[in-house]
Amino acid sequence: MPSNNLNQIAANMKRLRAEKGVTIGQIAGKTGVSYEVLTRIEKGTEPKVDQATLILIASYFGVKTDDLVGSSSIERYMVTGGRRIDLSDFTDAELTDLENYLIFLRWKRLKGKSAQQRT
């Protein structure tokens, strides 16, 4: 895992822990992840954080692993026709609406092509 992801995980874990008002020991007790590993994760010094550990930590805080890793907002963009469209400020509901609209446009285009072929 690249170091910038480790730093993002560390920052997010520290923030979530502060928001929930819990200690690393409490997280360790509930998740089964050792105190030492959790400490290194929060400091950004754990060399590799496996998926199972991320799932346990994210589950404890009630967030998605993408939110813990910090990739959800980073990866929310669409590249098409050489254009990069930033979608990072869209909610999940808005992204679903956008996806449905794109499906509708594709259907409309294909329907138009099939009508032209019949004439």
Automatic annotation (TrEMBL):
<dbReference type="InterPro" id="IPR001387">
    <property type="entry name" value="Cro/C1-type_HTH"/>
</dbReference>
<protein>
    <submittedName>
        <fullName>Helix-turn-helix transcriptional regulator</fullName>
    </submittedName>
</protein>
<dbReference type="InterPro" id="IPR010982">
    <property type="entry name" value="Lambda_DNA-bd_dom_sf"/>
</dbReference>
<feature type="domain" description="HTH cro/C1-type">
    <location>
        <begin position="13"/>
        <end position="68"/>
    </location>
</feature>
<dbReference type="Pfam" id="PF01381">
    <property type="entry name" value="HTH_3"/>
</dbReference>
